[in-house]
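Quick one - first record:
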Amino acid sequence: MMTSAGAPAPKHRRGSAISFSGFGPPPGLDDIVKQAQDLYLHPKPAKMPEGKKKLPKPGPAKLSKNASVDEWLKCAFNNQYLPESVMKKLCEICKEFLMEESNIQPVSTPVTVCGDLHGQFYDVLELFRVAGGAPSDVRVEPSPVPTNVITSDDIEPPTEITDPKLKKKLRSKDTEGEGSANTSGVSDEDDAEEEEERGRKRESSHGASLGIEKEGSSTIPGNQNYIFLGDFVDRGYFSLETLTLLLCLKARYPDRVTLVRGNHESRQITQVYGFYEECQQKYGNASVWKACCQVFDFLVLGAVIDGKVLCVHGGLSPEIRTLDQIRVIARAQEIPHEGAFCDLVWSDPEDVGTWAVSPRGAGWLFGNKVATEFNHVNGFQLIARAHQLVNEGYKWHFEDKSVVTVWSAPNYCYRCGNVASIMNLGEDLEPKFTIFSAVSERDRHVPPTTNRRTEYFL
């Protein structure tokens, strides 16, 4: 091409603008510009990816005539509760497996340890997603808006509140009688709510990954075992569906799922804080609740990971010095009001000398000296427990980090604003925490009638 002066036209450089003045736009350019303007001014919603599952919708499950445990599990992942006769059968199956387990169940690494769930079903699905998978062939799709996942390498929970404005805000909440969410991990849950030889060793087995591994997160993808530290029910909207999912996983993969009893796995507590009422509403009677309570009676009291990490719901007891003293407890009963059994599900770590009376009205407060001595006598390097709301998702207790609290119910009671965590342990037994947030409101269903649960301060 030649210019009007006869000199050759400069070559067009990539990235420079091209002017079409003087010889008109190329064919179709006006149409392209118009389409671009329309898209800018009137953007079309993005299409969902092919195969994208809809948000699990709660309701009764519709099973085939001879439905298997796999079909029950699929319905459970879709937030559907099982028919009464099937739910009772599921409870019987789980009882048979639980009867074979020791009070303290041995578990092998790799393992994911989960804290309180409290019936927050959609957050349990999120837990499995960020954990990298669960023992199931049913996939949990990621949320449309990815949840921020932070690992323990990115954040270390503060040991005290240093922001004066936050301190003032928390004090004002305390004076109003509200359950303030502090970072001490001592009584936040209380303010918001109340609050081997015989066993078969848990070996990793093969199974499809349930979730999607997040790049950069401290997950153990694939075939890890799971330990759930109790308090599966009460407070949340879907206690029945949450428990159904855990029981289906236990029935389908008994050697990979360990269910530890919490203080809410009890007849007395569930009659006050939601689970009993929910069963009555969905089944029209209390027969399923009774069957579930019989399962509660056979849940293990704790687990030991590779002989080095003790997992319990609450804490220690002045009546227990060795693991053998836990092994001989008669666990097939309602949780007593006092004694070693009671203490295991109710006690809390605290900065006390040895033992102190618990403000909960059950269990004890135990100090660093007690925890350190117990670990030394039994050859443990760590006690992992749940039972207390921690705003940061997990918290180390005492200078030597002999105890850790794991909390797995984000935005507890749908109002506390906390994050949650899970603890992953590999062969090196080095704890790695994955912190996750509650799923957004648009990614969860809320029952049409949600009665406010009774508050309790113990």
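second record:
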Amino acid sequence: MSLGYAEKLSYIEDVGQVGMSEFFDSPHVLKEKRLNSTTLQRIKEIPNFKDSESAPHLRSRDPDPDSMGFLELLEDLQVLSHKDNCVSKHLVVFTGAGISTSCGIPDFRGPKGIWTLQREGKALPEASLPFHRAMPGVTHMALVELEKAGILKFLISQNVDGLHLRSGIPREKLAELHGNSFMEICRSCGVEYLRDFEVETIGLKETSRRCPVCGTKLRDTVLDWEDALPPKEMSLAEKHCRIADVVLCLGTSLQITPACNLPLRSLRGGGKIVIVNLQKTPKDPKASLVIHGLVDKVIAGVMDFLNLKIPLFVRIDLLEISIIQGLSKDRRYVNWLLRIASVHGHKAPLPFIKSVEVSSHSESFKAVVLQKQPFQLKRRTIRTKSFEIMVKLNFSDGCGCSCAMISLPVDFKISPECPKYDKNAIFKNLKEMAIKDRSCGKTAIVEKKMMLDPKSEFIVYAMVTNISWHDGVPTAPEDTSKSSVNLIKRQNGVKNGIRTSRKRRKFFSHEMGLKMESKGGFSYSVLRKNLKKKNPQQRAWHV
């Protein structure tokens, strides 16, 4: 979580203003902001606006006080049915920690923020789930749909949680100014490697892995306090902010320099800044519109008003199962090794697997439970005998189901020809089946490789491990309450194999009964019912 990131940062006394109060604009305040805005007048000045059929949403209903902020924000972002009448032609979104709090990741500067608690000398809250299992939320997925619709032109993020990239935002349309906790980069050939585990270092340091392309040691991408912003990311961000007519700032306090000054670049070209945040920001006076409220609620309302569906997020993880074989000296038996490993290398962790159970219908095969990584099983079998083994993958905390089953035929025959698999088509099919059946644990082969010396077969499996339901429906009927607390343990200043500095250890050394609060308690079903009561013709929310 941001907990781990905060622990790994170098210690500094002054982290800026923290503990800022949160504000929620009332319907009356939102109405006043709407009436005082110049944006509505700009829309009304579009030729033939009143008689045109190009803006059916704005004319189809009377303003609802409960969604007034949505309408006003929409008027800043409005994409009419005729492209020639677009108000926002180059929308850039600038995101901060506030968009990930609903994903279980604490923010930094709020009343219960990490740096707020740190300054008060209080222990940090326990993470609600492992960092590597955090999933994109409503805002992340709404931005994916806005990009696919051609509305969002570029996304700038200060977050290191990697959720924008994981959600499906194209890499070329994303600038991660402070890095990505799940990415390594080769400084020699420039290749980026996205991992399913949290990289162990920050501060652009060398990691324990090498680039498969050129052999150079890889480095992490997350900045420490004194590190400069990456030139490539900064250059793209500045370019798009300069040409943006709207920069939408979501869930950011706009305090960290120089990143916080990027939205101001749009003002020189006549662009506007829109801020949606629970706290006041130093850039509020420069903004055309400021909404104090939950980002998820505001963006969901905008998406509904635009008749755009917020897509579900289906998480697919990969692992490699290999069988390496060799003949005994008398050539009567086959000595074989079964290995379940990460696709990122045999020494890389496999964070979503807790244990592996291997069994077979054969009476001579003794079932075994593999508890520790690397998961390996050695056996000897009569050479002429073929059989089938069952591999039960027990998922770790934070996954949407308890396990997945894989049937693995073993006949010790190695073919030099490897079948071709369409990964994109397989991923699409897995996601569709998971959503249709509302269940995780489905698997499919996406890659198969053979080696002749030693005789080896390597199979890469894709499996659905989570589904993010925006209406709050769980991914599986089983009780997941045990996975919601105390998943990240801290003992003697060590977390996930990373030792914190002695200066910082005092903030993480004792347990705390503080539970992260869910802010706002927003319910899509309730809001949908309220909207339909006031306007029966309004479309239902997409879920």
